[in-house]
Specification:
single chain; 285 residues; alpha+beta; Uridine Diphospho-n-acetylenolpyruvylglucosamine Reductase, domain 2; Uridine Diphospho-n-acetylenolpyruvylglucosamine Reductase, domain 3; Enolase-like, domain 1; 3 domains; 5-stranded antiparallel β-sheet; 4-stranded antiparallel β-sheet; 12 helices; 34% helix; binds flavin-adenine dinucleotide
């Protein structure tokens, strides 16, 4: 399909980009990799009158790793994460999850900020952000603010971003050495959006028991969320067969996925339990 008509701007500074968004009464949109926005425009799901291209904004680039954690600039691409060998130890859950995003071509263009703002319920990056209690730094006409990932995703393709706000960075807390993790998802074809996905971690205490469990799911609701019932089953326990069996049952019971053309709700509930089992086994291995 042909694109609808739109104006295009490619500002040199973040302040200029924010001012352009603010001056268009919600009718302007930032564009990063274009991998979600351009298809949405072609299908007339989005019809911005102005596209504000972020590509010249150097302050939105770069992966910074420190004792505070990992900071991903909004313009960091999936390919940048995949190619950064430091992340295998600095944030192995992120490194594992990103391997499941889309295909080679899309990974060369798609960005962290675009994925967070697009807020597809089955996207891996929002799932990692919610599971890890990430913070999203944004800049708008009233200045800067940070939003907790748990408060950022409001529904399918809906976030807490105001129309004039640009995501500048996603901040993931530091990853301790005693942390164990697993990421599992199932899609009909490699690179497709997940029918269900599970991101989890826990910290091993001195006695070999799990503490501080975080279990997040994607693809089984209108936004990613943590499963407190599964975390309660895992915390304080050795991750053995009995704990895994209880976690599987708790996960299947905790999610309320919709029926759709890809799978029934019952299938997705069972699948989520299976993915929790696989993720816990890989964490414990
Ligand atoms: C065939 C295909 C398969 C895919 N499979 C997957 C998959 O398996 N998993 C997955 O997670 N994704 C998948 N995607 C989506 C892909 O990861 C996108 O790249 C990503 O969702 C959006 O990133 P982008 O940089 O392309 O954003 P764009 O398309 O440029 O923008 C998307 C939205 O975010 C807004 N935006 C962009 N940057 C910012 C910013 N810094 N601040 C505020 N708003 C911003 C735009 O205005 C727009 O609303 C797939 C895409 C395709 C085409």
């Amino acid at each position: 399909m042909k694109m609808p008509a739109f104006e295009y701007a490619c500002p040199e500074t973040l302040a200029e980009a924010v001012a352009l968004l603010a001056s268009h009464d919600g009718e302007a949109k930032p564009i990063a990799g274009g991998q979600s926005l351009l298809p949405m425009m072609a299908f007339r799901v989005a019809q911005p009158t102005l596209l504000v291209d972020l590509r010249k904004l150097a302050e939105l680039r770069g992966i910074r790793i420190s004792s505070d954690g990992v900071r991903l600039g909004a313009l960091v691409r999936w390919r940048d994460i995949q190619d950064d060998a430091r992340l295998a130890t600095a944030h192995p859950l992120l490194a594992d999850a990103i391997k499941h995003v889309a295909h080679y071509q899309v990974r060369n263009r798609g960005t962290v900020g675009g994925s967070m703002a697009h807020a597809d319920p089955a996207s891996e990056m929002p799932g990692v952000a919610v599971t890890c209690d990430a913070e999203i730094a944004v800049r708008g006409k009233s200045g800067t603010r940070t939003i907790k990932a748990a408060d950022f995703f409001l529904g399918a393709l809906t976030t807490a971003l105001a129309p004039d706000e640009i995501i500048t960075e996603v901040r993931l807390p530091a990853w301790p050495a005693n942390r164990r993790h697993g990421f599992q998802e199932f899609a009909r074809r490699r690179g497709d959006f997940a029918m269900s996905g599970v991101a989890l971690f826990y910290d091993l205490d001195a006695g070999g028991k799990a503490a501080n469990a975080h279990v997040g799911v994607i693809g089984v609701g209108d936004h990613p969320k943590r499963l407190a019932a599964v975390e309660a089953v895992v915390n304080g326990q050795t991750v053995d067969e009995a704990t895994i069996a209880k976690a599987v049952a708790a996960a299947s019971a905790a999610v309320e996925p919709p029926d759709d053309i890809h799978a029934s709700a019952a299938y997705r509930k069972a699948l989520t339990g299976t993915l929790v089992e696989r993720a816990l086994r890989s964490a414990a291995a």
